Structures are given as structure tokens and as C-alpha cells.
Amino acid sequence: MNINSDSKNFGQRTVLTIYAHADDEVLPAAGTLSLMSKAGWNIRCLILTDGSLSSSPIKGTRHQEADAAGKIIGATYEFYALEEYNFSTQAVIKVTEEAIRRWQPDLIITHAPQPEKYGHRDHEVCAIAVSNVATRKNITLWYSAPPVFLRGFEPNFFVDITSVIEEKVAAIGCYESEVNKAFMQLDAILVLSRFWARELGQKDGYFEAFEISRQCVDASFFYAIANNHQVIKPS
Question: One Pfam family for this entry, by name (predicted)?
Fold first, then answer.
């Protein structure tokens, strides 16, 4: 993925990420969001839960950690207080529709759908609900790679984040309350980023992987490509 600063000439675009928990957004996509921010995109991160069941007993910790991560990747956050392990698809649909009305995103990024037997119940409910709304609203939708379970995830879009790998690591590091999780460790972050590079046959560099569920483009997309001012250029 190449993001050109000249993309600002085409008007600011907005990417809306919708994830169940704070840290779900940086693990698979911090590098991509950072690149988009540098290119002039408006980065909005919507978190469905408030972290009341997080590793830290101090209320508001996850909010503070997310704000710190946002300063690194150029994102602003909004938290909801849906009950972890117990929110419904209907609740997420309502939240998603409200967010779309307010922010009019050009792109939505969320969890990749995965059966509960392999993944996280909250991630699966979020993925189903967001997919429903994006489909009905005809909004471009990307699924990001799960941090651990890869079953059923079939990436078809890869982003070279080599230039911002340190920012990705720093953003993930902001979530100090979750540092004991295996996939939050530095070696796990780098190994997975290198894994996606190898999937592309790249000997060097770090990548993030996405599955494009829906891609909607208009005439300006082709004009941008023709003039080498593309906002997004698949590898």
C-alpha cells in the first residue's frame, strides 16, 4: 500500500475502525492507520466496550491507554459501554449506524469474522454486525487479521508498514495493562508482521494483512491512479 500526501488534494477522507476492545485496533492495523493519518485521512477509532473487565483494576485505564496510542498513530477515539461477553448484534448495529451518520466514513475496518470455537465471542458479534451495516450502506469494508487465530482468514490486501513499524510497536506498548498477553510481546508483533511479508515473498520488511470484504470506488479513484495520486494502491 502506498499512500501519497497529494491525496489531500482530493479532500479529506475518513476511515472508521470498529473494534470490541481497546488494543484490538492497534494489533492488526496500527501501521496502516498511521500511514493513512500521515496521508491526510481522518482516523476515527470506535471501541464498543469501556475496558471494565480489562487486566487493570483502575477505571478508565484503557481509555487513557487508547488516547496515548491515538497520539502516536494520529487517531481519535470514542468509547461505548457495551457489556463485554454479553452485547448483541442489534446493539452493535445501532452503534455502527449512528457512527456512520456522524462521520460518513469512506472506509470501515473491523474484526475478521471467526466462529466462536476459534476466536473471541465479542470479536465475532462485532464482525457480523458491522458487516451487516456496511453491506446495506454500501461502504468499503476491510477485515483485519486476528492476532492469534488465523482459521478462516484469507487476506487479499497487504500493507507495507516497514517505515512505521516503530510507531506500531509504540502504539501497542501504550496498552501497559495488557502487556502480559503473549501476542502483545515485541517478538510476537514483529514475527507476525514478518510472516505477512513472507506470504508475499518479501525477504525484508514488515506488513499488515487485510481481507477486503467490499471495495467501492468512483470515477475519482481511476483519475487518481491515472495521475499517480492514488490514496491506496494495492501491492
Answer: PIG-L
Which CATH number is 198's domain given?
A: 3.40.50.10320
Q: Are 45 and 77 in contact (CB under 8 A)?
A: yes
Read off the DSSP letter of residue 176: G
Closest-CA residue to 80 (of 28, 45, 55) = 45
Number of domains composing the chain: 1
User: What residue type is assigned to position 52 of the chain?
Assistant: S
**SS3 of residue 227 by DSSP:** coil
Q: Which H helix or E strand runs over 7?
A: none
Confidence (pLDDT) at 216:
78
The answer to whether position 146 is within a domain reads: yes
Q: Which of 11, 18, 80, 72 is nearest to 44 (CA)?
A: 18
> Which are the contacts of 149, defined by CB distance < 8 A and separation ≥ 6?
114, 118, 119
What H or E segment, with its residue span, contains residue 75?
A: strand 75-79
pLDDT tens digits along 186-204? 999 999 999 999 999 999 9
Query: What is the model's pLDDT at position 55?
Result: 61
Burial class (CB in 10 A: 0-12, 13-18, 19+), 227: exposed
When computed from its CA atoms, the radius of gyration of the chain, rounded to whole angstroms, is: 17
Q: What range defines the domain where residue 66 resides?
A: 13-217
The answer as to whether 229 is a domain residue is no
Distance of alpha carbon 127 from alpha carbon 112, whole angstroms: 6
Contact between 100 and 16 (Cβ < 8 Å): yes
Q: What is the maximal distance between C-alpha atoms in the chain?
A: 53
The contacts of residue 195 (CB under 8 Å, 6+ apart) are none
